[in-house]
Each structure stands twice: as structure tokens, then as C-alpha cells.
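Async update (no meeting this week)

Hi team, since we skipped the sync, here's where things stand on the single-chain job. The sequence we agreed to prioritize is pasted below, unchanged from the tracker. I ran it this morning and attached the output directly underneath so nobody has to dig for it. Comments welcome in thread, and please keep replies under the output.
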Amino acid sequence: MRIIMSDSAKEAVSTVATMVFELIGSHPNSVIGLATGKTMEPVYEIWSQLALDNKIPHDKCFFFMLDEYLGLPPGHQGSFRSYIEKRVLAPLKLHANQFAFHPVHAGIDQAASHYEQSLKEAGGVDLQLLGIGTNGHVGFNEPGSSKNSRTRMVELTNETINTNQIDFPNGDMPSKALSMGIETILEAKKLVMLATGQSKADAIKYLLNHHDDPKCPATFLKNHPNFILVLDPEAASKINLKI
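Output:
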């Protein structure tokens, strides 16, 4: 695991956005795994601006979603598909056929197996973007998830529901989702996790002090040969990396 300590949240975000931009610039056929949430919003903003300013085409890239809610009607503004369409697809002028969105309106077992097959056919993910939940979840792999989990339906914890309720002002927050599993995530060639803000400090402290702990599924990622953790000062405030 490589840890990048940034001087500010802005610097941390820029570091991650630049990683994605540079990969696509050097390897136009890259397959990128996309995470969502508030942490990633500025990443997509900077990445899109870099691509537009430098006229780097993204038409040969392909993108996989990390997770998606179950039970929302098509086009719901709280869905992660809508999130990505607004923050990645539209700004970069991409096409919907460049994205593998979770087929959540199919049968659950069929949707999960279809997604796994799509990942295999694409040759796997070159770079997977990740955040971390305050309870240590990665994707929607909540505490208790196993290291060998694959894409599947998951039950969201009350903590996750309370955190994400802000995106559902009408009170229709789903309690279930479809998520890549830990083993699925670990098959990506490179993992880049971004953590910013004081609310992530406890999770980061736990991540760095524990190994393969189902209580904090993010700890399973530490054995990946190319796992990069990018932190701002607040997220890193409860750790000490000095020797």
C-alpha cells in the first residue's frame, strides 16, 4: 500500500483526478471503475476540466460502476447512474454505450452474473476509484462482508442510510443495493482510494491499524499490490506515519 499525504483536500482531489487523466492520456483504451459520493464530486470536476483543456479524447475508454441502489425507478435523480451521467458522461461528451451500469431492473441474480461477465469480457478494470465509508465500507460492502464476495445484492446499514439520506429529500432512500464485491474490486489492476474530511479520520485510522478485518471491509484492500491511499490533513488527523 502506498499512502499519499496531501496538504489540503483540494490537493488530494487534484492528485486523484490527475491519475485518471494521465492514465487515459497514455492509454486511451483504459477501463476505469467509477465510485460515487460527495468525496468524488470534485474529482470528476477537475478530471473533466483537464480533459477538455488538454483536448484528450475519451471516446475509446470504458467505465464500470462500483454500485447502484435497488428499487429506484429509471432516471431517479438519487441513482448513481444519474450521478455519473451528470458528472462524467455529460461533461466529457461521452456516450452511454461506454458505460456498464448495473442492470438493477433485471432479476438480482441475473444482474450480478451479467455484471461479472461484462467485467471479464472487458479484460478487467485498469484503475478503480474508491471512497471509504465512515464505517469502513468500500463500495456498498458493509461491515461483515467477506473477502471473497463478488457482485451481489447487499443490505445497507442504518449508518449508511442515515449518511446518504440527504440525497433523498422525499424520504425514498433505498435499503438495498447491488455492489461489486471485495474480490471483484481486488481484481482491478490498480486501486485508488480518496479520503477527505474529519468524518473519515476514524475509518482511516482503523484501516491502517488492522488487516483483513470484516468489521472494516476496506482493510481487505491492503494486500493489493497496487493500492494507493490519498489523504487530506483532516482524514489523516488520527494517524501517525512518522518512524
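Quick observations from my side:
Strands lie at 2-5, 31-34, 62-65, 67-69, 99-100, 127-130, 152-155, 176-179, 191-195, 227-231.
The mean pLDDT is 95.
Reply here if anything looks off.
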